[in-house]
Write a structure and sequence with these properties.
4-stranded antiparallel beta sheet, alpha+beta, disordered N terminus, single chain, 6 helices, 6-stranded mixed beta sheet
Length: 418
């Protein structure tokens, strides 16, 4: 059987509309499976940790629900067969090889039973260097491959790769805390012992539509409180009592890292008041103002969706689809604010999962529709170097999106979203 590859063999040169997007870079492969929960495809999570001067560790996590388990000849149990291969390059074009290796993961289980599988490997990279790590996973039972390209920054700037977050001995794979208590572990390469923690419960604004001007730089916020803390044996036990937490060495506030805590129910929204806010993307100013001021918020929200859906059954389906997209956006796009409020989040909520995604270590291009079709729409996102948050992407905005945006919003308001 011919091997099916997630990536395509033809490279797509991205035409850029902003100086933030350089024209000599290529966005590779099709990653449309990344944000589509309907596709049970390996979707690894990664955490890089610079533990020594000449090597670093990549921790990765797989969901067993995305893996196919098959019975082995002569064995009554079912097993997964996963191959992992990595290649580390000194250049963005992936031509100068520094290190490479592979692992095979064997795990017994049953299809449909979800559990998190964690593993790690050590790769060679000297302190002071940059690298680009290509990681390929192959599910032998599915005859399927996925590839991710990760940027490795070991230039001594105390970015997030010099810290790791733990719940017990379980690695947390992003800067969003899944619990109110965790351990921050710093690298041996970080000589500073005393740090400052700043905390805030600021509610950040939802992003504007893609044709509108971007929000001003939001991370300049007024802290609610701050306090010094010390690492002991490179560890610090941290309790998140606030939504927004950032820490830095006591003598260098430019080397900042972040931890975010949105509550134990996150990424779900459960309170009626929480469900009202995201309706702003598809409501008129008057509708939204009335929802926010409603004496009975639940009744007001029900009336809003009934108006859009025209009947009870269609309204329920419309509401279900909208808030499922909100949850997916929170799961994948959350950075310093909830995922649905971000640039990628607003596009996902209104347009759904992209038909095609091209990406590299710090850029994503989303296509809705067929390639080379004038009716298709494309959105570009990039990671600004000025923000030290791995999951923070900003959109390349353009006034030409305006008509397409309102057509898509009108579909919601007519209750015609599939």
């Amino acid at each position: 059987m011919k091997t099916r590859l997630v990536y395509i063999l033809v490279l797509l040169l991205v035409l850029l509309q902003s100086a933030c997007y350089t024209t000599n870079e290529v966005v590779r492969y099709d990653y449309s499976y990344l944000y589509d929960d309907n596709q049970a495809i390996i979707n690894p999570k990664y955490k890089i940790f610079h533990h020594s001067e000449d090597s670093s560790i990549l921790y990765y996590q797989l969901n067993s629900g995305d893996i196919l388990y098959e019975r082995i000849a002569g064995d009554s149990a079912k097993a997964a067969s996963i191959k992992m291969k990595y290649s580390l390059y000194a250049d963005r074009d992936l031509t100068i090889l520094i290190d490479s290796g592979s692992q095979r993961l064997a795990n017994y289980g049953e299809n449909g039973r979800k559990k998190l599988l964690q593993n790690s490997f050590t790769f060679k990279l000297q302190e002071g260097k940059l690298g680009w790590l290509s990681v390929r996973f192959r599910d032998d039972n599915k005859d399927f491959n996925v590839i991710n390209i990760l940027k490795i920054d070991k230039t001594g700037n105390l970015n997030e790769q010099y810290f790791i977050y733990l719940k017990g001995e379980q690695v947390l794979f992003d800067q969003r805390s899944i619990s109110d208590t965790l351990t921050i572990r710093k690298s041996n390469l970080v000589n500073d012992k005393q740090f400052v923690m700043e905390v805030s419960d600021k509610e950040f604004n939802m992003t504007p539509p893609p044709f509108a001007q971007a929000l001003s730089y939001e991370l300049k916020f007024r802290r609610d409180n701050q306090y010094p803390f010390f690492f002991k044996d490179n560890n610090y036990l941290f309790t998140a009592n606030h939504r927004f937490n950032r820490f830095y060495p006591v003598n260098d506030s430019n080397k900042t890292n972040y931890i975010f805590y949105f509550g134990e129910q996150f990424p779900k929204l459960n309170q009626v008041t929480e469900l009202i806010d995201p309706t702003r993307y598809i409501s008129t100013s008057t509708e939204y103002k009335n929802l926010k001021a409603a004496v009975n918020p639940k009744k007001g929200l029900d009336s809003f969706w009934l108006k859009l859906g025209k009947n009870e059954n269609n309204s329920k389906e419309l509401l279900k689809e909208y808030y499922e997209r909100i949850e997916v956006a929170n799961q994948f796009f959350t950075s310093y604010k909830e995922g649905w409020k971000t640039d990628r989040g607003i596009i996902y909520v209104i347009y759904g999962a992209p038909s095609t995604i091209r990406k590299n270590a710090d850029k994503e291009v989303w296509l809705y529709g067929e390639e080379n079709n004038v009716l298709s729409v494309q959105f570009r996102f990039y990671q600004p170097e000025s923000v030290n948050i791995s999951n923070h992407f900003e959109m390349v905005r353009n006034s030409d999106y305006k008509n397409n945006w309102y057509r898509q919003v009108d579909l919601w308001r007519q209750g015609k979203i599939d």
